[in-house]
Amino acid sequence: MLISVIADINITPQKECTNRDCFQNLLDQIENITSQVLPVNTVTNILTGVFNASESSLLSSSSVSPAKLASDGNRVLKSSEKLISTLVKPTDTSANVSFSLAALEVEVFMVGPQVTLDKIPRLVTTNSSVDIDLIGIAKNNSGGSAAVAFMSYNTMENLLKADFFNTSNDTIKTMMSTVISATLPKTTNTKLTKPVNFTLRHIREFDPSGSLSCVYWNISEWIVDGCSVLETNSSFTVCSCVHLSTFALIMQTSRPPESESLMDLLNLVCVIVGLVFFSLALLTFALCQWSPGVNNVARINLCVSLLLAHLLFLLTQQFLSLIRRQQVLCAVISGVLHFLFLSGFVWMSIEAVLLFICVRNLSQISSKKREVLSSGFLCVIGYTVALVVVSVSIGLLPEGYGSDHCWIKMDKGFIWSFLGPVCVILALNTILFINIIIKLNSTLKNLNPEVSQMRQTKIMTFKTLAQFVVLGCSWILGFFSNDSKILEILFLILNSQQGTFIFLVYCVLNDEREMSEAVV
To answer: CA distances (Å), 120 to each of 90, 111, 126, in order?
Structure first.
């Protein structure tokens, strides 16, 4: 049942609302409530039904016009405020009522003629707070009483969208806070004695280049009249308003140039091609017969980590508008991506170590691999290092996951939980490559004179250079691609084609049997 039988108000019990007509009927019944005072559990039951019906109505409709969304939002606000006003009771001193639902948090504070407070405490919800001079308002009322209701709506942006903020600039509007309302229920004189300050926590990643506006809802649009930004940082913004209403914080950012759509298309095509070659490489490693001295554990796990990372990232970006609404899911995805990409880097480093051992012990590759780095030991290192880094990152700053693109947030320096390990691995790989080249030149001088030294030099040099590309050359470009479109394109192509490089170097152009014969 959507709402249990309630004897003292005129609401008919009904089954779960799944369409717009049912939702509208429920709002009609709430508007006809005549009771002046209701118990808290009755109010919370009805409000739960309202927001559940609102969500079901949106999901059941393939498309709802902006006018209907605004109309539904107005009616939900009106119904919520009416129900919450029934919680206000007469008091000689002071009293408060509060409750929290999945879609709504409420704080109600009442003062009477014998109140001993100099000012009321700050009203606080999870993502917002308000400072209001309720004592001064009460003094201006004949009975010396007043009440304030503060509401924070967690899902109201689905109805009162940020796009309802009409501006002259063609910008992207993003809701940066929960929608909040502040009213003075059962208060005769509602004139404010001083401006009201709202503190709104940012629920999405803050863009320093964006423009923030404190807005309030006016029938069919968000407007800024009477509201201003007092203070802001990467985490919260303080708004000051000279009236009470329904408020929100909206950020405007410039629309991406048309070339961005071409970049998105290029990224989609390149990632799909890379995923195909990752899959071909894994099939080759699994189905082809390799000489007994060849250990493909690092290569296989490298492919698995990067395949899953690129596939998850691709799917996330394709369904970003749906996933972004689920904050927990978005944060989980960013944590998994953090783990998978770091695992890929660790396996890249392990492959560099194996190549170093291969060059150092060129005449006994297989025995050294089994003796020094067993498959089990490689698997422990390959995944444990990344797991430890992600676990520590979650422990230190769990809210660092779940940016607008479901990746690591850039604020508070949390991005270094990824860039830090990457820089360390790239630095170690660079040192290994320098040593590989030095030892390779030294080793080639001592090879069997019957082996073509020129041919060996070409094979080993190509293998080393290709390995360097696979193990992070693209990410070095990524560090410097912010201000260069050419470098950004190169980074996109090289990073997405790691699977292609692996398939070509280790599967198509790699003859392990020929190499074994050459180095004996």
So the answer is: 17, 9, 19
